[in-house]
Each structure stands twice: as C-alpha cells, then as structure tokens.
Design a protein that fits this description.
Elements: E1 4-8, H1 12-30, E2 38-42, H2 45-53, H3 57-73, E3 78-81, H4 90-93, H5 104-114, E4 120-123, H6 126-130, H7 132-140, H8 150-162, H9 171-186, E5 191-194, E6 212-214, H10 215-226
Parallel strand pairs: 1-2, 1-3, 4-5, 5-6
Helix pairs in contact: 1-10, 5-10, 8-9
C-alpha cells in the first residue's frame, strides 16, 4: 500500500471521519490487524477560515502549498485534501509538489457517472456552491448541477460553519437540511452531493429520497483504490 498524505483540519471534524473511514476500509480489505499507511497534517482551521472570510485565497494557497510539500518530504506518495472548499486553491497548493492529488470533485463525478445519474443537487459551503472551481469541474464531467436557492445556500453555509465544524449536531438543523435536499429533488435533482465534508453529519441515504454521494466517503474509497 502506498502512503497516503492527508491535508486536513478544515475542519477537524471531517478529518476525524477520514481517518476512521480509511482505517475501516483497510481492515475490510486486508483483515487482521491491518491499518492504513498514513501521514496527516492537520492545520488550525481558525487561521484558514479567517483567510476565507477575508478573501485571501492566495495566502491560503501558499499555506497549503507549504503543507503539501511537507507531506511529500515526510514520505507521502499520494495526496488527499480533506475538504471540498479548499480545492479552490488546488492548483496553487500543488505547485512544485511531485506527488499526485486525488481531486475530491473528480472522484465524486466519476462515481455519479458510473451510477448513470447526471443531475446532482449540491449542498456545500457558499464558496463551493457559488464559485466556479467545483461546479465547473462537475460540468466538465457531463453533470448538470442544481444548486439550492439563495436562502437555502445561506442556511446550508451557516450550519456548516456555526455548527458542524464545531461538532454540533442538532435535530433542527438535520430537518432543515432534509428540507433543502427535498427542494432540490423537487427541482429535478436525481441525486445529491454532500459537497462539504461535514454535511454527512446530518444527511445520509436514510433521510434523502434520491441517491446520496457523500464526498468524504467517496474520497476515502477512491483513495483506497488509488493506493494499491
């Protein structure tokens, strides 16, 4: 197994899910006492969030570039950026890095296409929903993305930052997310992308009426296949 480098902490809540899921997948694949070969660099999300809110994406990209290079120096052979939003600086992050990056949107698009679906609803941070770095990549894969309306985008974003990134899970927010998901289905979504690595804390196949693609889980599964 190749050594995976996980660049996480954005937020720490989802990075914990990455570690747990990769351990589970390795144990299922190999049995016994096997666990994955991993390096994890978890940054302080408060620093990154401040750069996001200030629109200082270039400075954020510089920071992640330094961290990606550190993971490579540490022996990582493959890189996973454990956040959807920060893929907006993926190109800058990978400047001068010699190991490959498994892009979370590519892994997700591939899984949706393989399922024969083409009109995913997307629930994510406002950055991921409203900037083009993510939706353009899905469109290039032949998907017709459906976004929540403005009010639903704002509420989706608020719950992520005010609650999920702080590991707060409430029934009221779960029901709010279910309502947003169902409004996307009513507008023609044939599946749903949980396009922030924390959204799966509230939504899953049990409370959404169309196929669900949790980007955290999809990313982990793709990384596991990639590592062999």
């Amino acid at each position: 197994m190749k050594t995976l480098g996980i660049l996480g902490g954005m937020s720490a809540a989802s990075t914990q899910i990455y570690y747990r899921e990769l351990c589970r997948l390795t144990a299922e694949r190999l049995g016994g006492l096997h666990s994955p070969e991993l390096l994890i660099r978890s940054v302080d999300f408060a620093d990154i969030e401040a750069l996001q809110m200030a629109g200082e994406w270039g400075r954020a990209g510089e920071r992640l570039n330094a961290e990606a290079k550190a993971l490579e120096r540490g022996g990582a052979e493959l890189l996973i950026l454990a956040t959807n939003t920060m893929h907006t600086v993926a190109a800058q992050m990978m400047d001068g890095v010699g190991i490959p990056l498994l892009h979370i949107a590519d892994a997700t698009a591939s899984r949706i296409a393989a399922a024969g679906l083409r009109s995913p609803g997307l629930m994510a941070t406002a950055f991921t929903m409203e900037q083009s770095f993510y939706t353009d990549r899905l469109a290039e894969a032949g998907l017709d993305v459906i976004l929540p309306d403005e009010a639903d985008r704002a509420e989706t974003h608020r719950i992520i930052y005010d609650e999920l990134c702080r590991q707060i899970v409430s029934e009221a927010s779960r029901q709010a997310y279910v309502g947003i998901a169902e409004r996307l289905v009513a507008r023609g979504a044939d599946c749903l992308i949980l396009g922030c690595t924390e959204v799966g804390m509230l939504l899953d196949q049990g409370n959404v009426s169309v196929p669900v693609f949790d980007t955290t889980l999809v990313h982990c599964e793709a990384a596991m296949e990639w590592a062999w």
